[in-house]
Each structure stands twice: as structure tokens, then as C-alpha cells.
Amino acid sequence: MKKCKTCNNLTNTKSYYCSAKCMLESKSYKIENDCHIWQYSFTGKGYKKGKGYPTFEHLGKVYKAHRISCESLHGPAPEDKPFACHTCNDTRCYNPEHLYWGSHLDNITDGKRDGVYSTPSGENNCNSLYTNEIYNKIDKMIIEYKNGLRTLK
After folding, report:
1. Element (H, E) at 66
2. Which helix (H) or strand (E) covers residue 29, if one does?
3. Whole-number Å distance between alpha carbons of 43 and 108
């Protein structure tokens, strides 16, 4: 048995840390705009900076740093909100104050609102069937219908 390097609890693991959380707390980071920027390995996916999500290995299992960090402040992910969402929109960040548990819809909505995700429409989308002018007319008709100014025929 040896002591965990972070919390000093006794551990009989092969690691110097008793848990993934303790290992994460031992990592150093760089601060940019109040974000804790990960300095180690990343997954191959991600929407910003082309870096993906911060990862580390503990006892043969790969963990995503932002998920462990979110859990340390907010507890385990609820069943209906399994995504560790970033308020800062930087996938490299694992500052627990910038993270919250959300649904897939929450994550996509945040990304669209903050300009991370954008879906081209009209002539800007190669799969579009209509011109921008037709899309604008359809949007106007939908708004008029919702406001009671138009009926469906």
C-alpha cells in the first residue's frame, strides 16, 4: 500500500493516485481567459482549435478531463443530462466553473448561439433545394402563421 500523491489516502493501485479525480488535480494547466487549458493529450475530435477534448489515462482506462472536472464540482451526470457542456466554448478547458451537465440539445443550442456550430441554408448549402429568396418567403410565412396573420391553405 502507498499514499496517493494528491489526497494522501492509502491506495493499493499500481498508480501514484487513488482515483482519476486525484490524478486530474495533480496536472498543471495554463490559464487563458480564466480557462484552465489542458497541456497534455487530446482526443481527435473537437469543435475549436482542432485539438479535441483533454484526455488522460489512469489504471488502463482513458478519461476525458472535462467530464471528471465537471463531476468534481457538480456531482455525477444526471441521466437526462449526460453531456459536460462548456460555457466558455473551449474544448481544451477543464475549469469546473466553466462546465455544467446538459443534454445534447443544450450542447447544440449553446454552440449555435455562440457561433460554434452553423448550418448553412439556402444557396450556401450544397444540398439545398431552394434559393435564399424562397427560404426567406417560407420563414416570413411561418412567422405570420405563428402570429395568427396567416392560415394554412
Report:
1. helix 65-74
2. strand 29-32
3. 19
What's the predicted TM-score (pTM) here?
0.64
Residue 10 CB contacts under 8 Å (≥ 6 apart), including other chains: 1, 2, 3, 4, 18
Q: Is 47 helix (H, G, I), strand (E, B) or coil?
A: coil
Q: How far apart are CA 74 and CA 65, in angstroms?
A: 14
Q: What is the pLDDT of residues 69-127, one digit of tens each?
A: 999 999 999 999 999 999 988 888 889 999 999 999 898 888 878 777 777 767 877 88
Give how far Cα 133 sits from Cα of 65, 121, 139, 152, Å.
45, 11, 10, 20
